[in-house]
Amino acid sequence: xxxxxxxxxxxxxxxxxxxxxxxxxxxxxxxxxxxxxxxxxxxxxxxxxxxxxxxxxxxxxxxxxxxxxxxxxxxxxxxxxxxxxxxxxxxxxxxxxxxxxxxxxxxxxxxxxxxxxxxxxxxxxxxxxxxxxxxxxxxxxxxxxxxxxxxxxxxxxxxxxxxxxxxxxxxxxxxxxxxxxxxxxxxxxxxxxxxxxxxxxxxxxxxxxx
Length: 210
Fold this sequence. Notes:
Oligomer: single chain
CATH architecture of the largest domain: Up-down Bundle
Number of helices: 10
Helix content: 55-70%
Largest sheet: 3 strands, antiparallel
Number of strands: 3
Strand order of the largest sheet: 1-3-2
Radius of gyration: 18 Å
Shape: globular
Number of domains: 2
Protein name: GntR family transcriptional regulator
CATH topology of the largest domain: Four Helix Bundle (Hemerythrin (Met), subunit A)
Organism: Aporhodopirellula aestuarii
Mean pLDDT: 88
Distance between the termini: 37 Å
Pfam family, one: FCD
Keywords: DNA-binding, Transcription, Transcription regulation
InterPro entries: GntR_C, TF_FadR/GntR_C, Tscrpt_reg_HTH_GntR, WH-like_DNA-bd_sf, WH_DNA-bd_sf
């Protein structure tokens, strides 16, 4: 299928390069379950599918491996990571909550108006996704909202480890079928954050991350 078909959908996110467009589409496919867990992804096949050279696909593999969605295995190449088992997922969820709690408690007193505007913009994008009702987009906007909070609270140094945890959780992302409720949960996080109420923000975060 020509890449332009994919590009039309992805331009809503305003990707700047072909590499970003390819990365966005592969990530979307991973979250939607198009690729079987443990399966091998081949550059030449995806390059043909998207109508691009192998370079952007190779770059996408590197980025998505860094994000935690893909794994490189010697003599096998790039494979799709398997979702964590229930015990591992509970542990991952616990660590993610600890990271977000730590950053919010430490950084909330130093929030600026500009940083709060960035969080509010991420919340608005989540609402659009919830209104549209596409689960994979909602999952990505959900994580984007939480990341905007970490950045606003000065948690940049934690982002690498945090993103790896989130990617593992997204492989089994199953939230409310009532997407309006999903938005309300995140609105209830933003409200105390905008008032610089760290403790109430943490309580809303802990209730939200499942």
